[in-house]
């Protein structure tokens, strides 16, 4: 997507320096900082500290991490150690393990001297595939928005609600939940997006930054506002992303997604999830029982981060000192609350049958 007239992906390989370039998302939406990632430790830190974040982007970053590892030492043992180190960075988004396993399956059968080149080629392929998957998700999601727009008086916007940031910076490009929004806007369909702030990390501010950069009308709302807006008929469609979707269509996404799905269900608002196939965990059926939920630092809850009037970034404590805080980072929305899954192969029911019909090849391989 474009920032100040320049097209960026959220990561790219610098051939001259043999390093990965990332946008350090800790500084967004206030500063657009580009940073090189040059060692395996730096790759792991970038994911742990959420300099890069969002399930598809975490997967693509890990693939480049494996490319670096293969360049440094292509032996089986070194690659396995790199797999372990990167896989331990974040536990919930399945794209991480998906990308790491794909690297191992490709590299281990090769002679050691061929592995570095093959690993970089594969990382590029994973990044390019992500862009195409998300573009396609956008074309299918666009049909939903178009159908709603067709039933409204001319010029009246379709009102969408999204949670967290499933935007272009959470992927390599386009985003998942945002791709239909970008494509609807570009097709001249008027839309307005309610953007959940998404405490504690306020990923909604990233979504607001993205949508604003693209000229899309939006309002940033507190996490608790969505139910009220739905009750008052102000939301036509919810689209969120996902960090891991089970073979029966349970959706694990940023904490608070489940409450939005409950409110949508209670108010008859369609609740769709933009789902790239690398985010499906075919080994898991019941998401509530089986998906590990990341528990993050309590300081993300006890404090808020933002720009001070001085222009510096600052942390302010909001709780009494010493208050115990809980910080589960994701939750699971059971499939019965999900109207449909928007994938790169079309839209399906959030069910084992729906996913199996669209992805018979992947289910066989799992
Ligand atoms: O903790 P984060 O910021 O990595 O969580 C991101 C999300 O929950 C996104 O909704 C999800 O990864 C989908 S991104 C296309």
TrEMBL record:
Biological classification of the source: Bacteria, Pseudomonadati, Pseudomonadota, Alphaproteobacteria, Rhodobacterales
Function as written in the Swiss-Prot or TrEMBL entry: Catalyzes the interconversion of methylthioribose-1-phosphate (MTR-1-P) into methylthioribulose-1-phosphate (MTRu-1-P).
Pfam family, one: IF-2B
GO process terms (BP): L-methionine salvage from methylthioadenosine
This protein's record includes keyword Amino-acid biosynthesis: yes
Name assigned to this protein: Methylthioribose-1-phosphate isomerase
Reaction equations catalysed: 5-(methylsulfanyl)-alpha-D-ribose 1-phosphate = 5-(methylsulfanyl)-D-ribulose 1-phosphate
Residue numbers binding substrate: 53-55, 90, 203, 253-254
Gene name per UniProt: mtnA
InterPro entries, per the entry: IF-2B-related (IPR000649), IF-M1Pi (IPR005251), IF_2B-like_C (IPR042529), Initiation_fac_2B_a/b/d (IPR011559), M1Pi_N (IPR027363), NagB/RpiA_transferase-like (IPR037171)
Keywords, ordered alphabetically: Amino-acid biosynthesis, Isomerase, Methionine biosynthesis
UniProt cross-references to SUPFAM superfamilies, sorted A to Z: NagB/RpiA/CoA transferase-like
HAMAP family: Salvage_MtnA
Assigned protein family: Belongs to the EIF-2B alpha/beta/delta subunits family. MtnA subfamily.
One Gene Ontology term of the molecular function aspect: S-methyl-5-thioribose-1-phosphate isomerase activity
Enzyme active site: 243
Keyword Transport: no
């Amino acid at each position: 997507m474009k920032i100040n007239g320049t097209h960026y992906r959220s990561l790219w390989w610098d051939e001259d320096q043999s390093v990965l370039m990332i946008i350090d998302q800790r500084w967004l939406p206030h500063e657009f900082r580009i940073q090189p990632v040059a060692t395996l430790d730096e790759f792991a830190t970038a994911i742990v500290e959420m300099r890069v974040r969002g399930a598809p982007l975490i997967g693509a970053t890990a693939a480049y991490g494996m490319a670096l590892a293969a360049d440094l030492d292509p032996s089986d043992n070194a690659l396995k150690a790199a797999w372990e180190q990167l896989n331990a960075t974040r536990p919930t988004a399945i794209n991480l393990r998906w990308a790491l396993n794909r690297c191992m399956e490709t590299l281990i059968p090769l002679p050691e001297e061929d592995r570095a080149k093959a690993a970089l080629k594969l990382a590029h392929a994973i990044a390019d595939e992500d862009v195409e998957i998300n573009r396609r998700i956008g074309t299918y999601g666009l049909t939903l928005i178009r159908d709603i727009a067709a039933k409204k008086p001319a010029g009246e916007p379709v009102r969408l609600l999204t949670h967290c940031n499933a935007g272009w910076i959470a992927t390599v490009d386009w985003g998942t939940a945002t791709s239909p929004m970008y494509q609807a806007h570009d097709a001249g369909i008027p839309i307005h997006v309610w953007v959940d702030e998404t405490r504690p990390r306020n990923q909604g501010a990233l979504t607001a930054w993205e949508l604003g950069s693209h000229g899309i009308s939006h309002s940033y709302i507190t996490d608790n506002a969505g139910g009220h807006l739905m009750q008052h008929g102000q939301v036509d469609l919810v689209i969120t992303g996902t960090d891991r979707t089970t073979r029966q269509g349970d959706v694990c996404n940023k904490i608070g997604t489940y409450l939005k799905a409950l409110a949508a269900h209670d108010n008859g608002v369609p609740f769709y999830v933009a789902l790239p196939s690398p985010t499906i965990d075919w080994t898991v059926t019941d998401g509530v029982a089986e998906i590990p939920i990341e528990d993050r630092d309590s300081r993300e809850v006890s404090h808020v981060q933002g720009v001070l009037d001085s222009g510096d970034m600052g942390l302010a404590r909001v709780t009494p000192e010493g208050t115990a805080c809980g910080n589960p980072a994701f939750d699971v929305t059971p499939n019965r609350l999900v109207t449909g899954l928007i994938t790169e192969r079309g839209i399906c029911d959030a069910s084992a049958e729906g996913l199996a019909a669209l992805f018979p090849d992947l289910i066989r391989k799992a």
